Amino acid sequence: WTLRLWQEGQKSSLLLFQSGAHEVNDVQWCPNNSTVFGDVTSGGRLELWDIELSTVKPVVTHKAGVKLSCLLFGKGSPIVVCGGEDGTLQVFRTYNIDREYDTTEEQLYRLDETIKANVMKQKPGEAAV
Q: Is 104 exposed, middle or buried (0-12, 13-18, 19+ CB in 10 A)?
């Protein structure tokens, strides 16, 4: 499965990210870092991506052992909460991803620069290399 980053008003995606072999059930942006997002899959994988570091592979991958259906980053705490299809919750502590002291302008600048740098590496319709 692939994840795609789109810009409103554009006809094609800006970036493609290759996830695993299972369908992606949820994707969320990290509220404290403009270049970090996470996804969960029906195969039970939690993936955390930091596109400033890599568009090829997630910076964190965890096999939960149960089909995952949703995730949520903590807004005031360095955690990620994942919901399982069986009703369980798993809480993970995150390290080194929060940029809570950056201003909104700094966060947007970092995201724009990261996207520009990575769009130039990809050809239209191809996953990141």
A: exposed
